[in-house]
Amino acid sequence: MGTVPEAAAVFGLDVSLTLVFLVVGLAVFLWGFARYRRTFWRTELAVATLIALGVWSVGVFPDLFLVIADVLRLSETFRAVQIVANVAFVFLLLYALSLINDN
Fold first, then answer.
1. Could you give the number of structural domains in the chain?
2. Which H/E stretch holds residue 39?
3. Cα–Cα distance between 17 and 13 in angstroms, integer?
4. Residue 96 class from Cβ within 10 Å (0-12 exposed, 13-18 middle, 19+ buried)?
5. Residues 17, 50: one domain?
6. Mind listing the pLDDT tens digit for each residue in 46-55?
7. What is the mean pLDDT of residues 67-74?
8. Which of 83, 34, 90 shows the shortest CA–CA distance to 58?
9. Which of 10, 47, 49, 61 would you call most buried, defined as having the most Cβ atoms within 10 angstroms of its Cβ?
């Protein structure tokens, strides 16, 4: 297959997959920033920033989830990513429900 580029060795993932994560994270952040410029809701910007940082951490620092997997005593790293993503999703769902109930 050839050699792995040094950038992929630094990031720990395939270069194209890392770029996908970076682009998705950037798109989420830009969406939150655009919403903030239109509505001046800092909460939406903060939520978008946290989601973007989460996506970027998976793309750029995948070894971070090895530490989380070790803490949770999981044998597979992807399960740690799933757990973190599901916990974040639950908090986002609860936040959305609180916004709906306020209106």
1. 2
2. helix 15-39
3. 7
4. exposed
5. yes
6. 888 999 998 9
7. 89
8. 83
9. 47
pLDDT of residue 6: 53
Residue-level pLDDT at 53: 92
DSSP assignment letter at 75: S
Q: Which of 48, 96, 87, 43 minimizes the C-alpha distance to 68?
A: 87
Same structural domain for residues 72 and 56? no
The domain containing residue 99 runs over which residues?
Answer: 63-103
Q: Is residue 2 part of a domain?
A: no
Q: Give the model confidence (pLDDT) of 14-43 as tens digits.
A: 788 888 889 999 999 999 899 888 888 788
**pTM for this entry:** 0.70
Number of other residues whose CB lies within 10 A of the CB of residue 25: 22
The answer to whether residues 53 and 76 belong to one domain is: no
Contact 5, 15 (CB under 8 A): yes
- Same domain? For 54 and 82 the reply is no
For the cut 60, the answer to whether the pLDDT of residue 85 exceeds it is yes
Per the domain annotation, does 5 fall within a domain? Answer: no
**Residue 17 token pair:** 């997959």
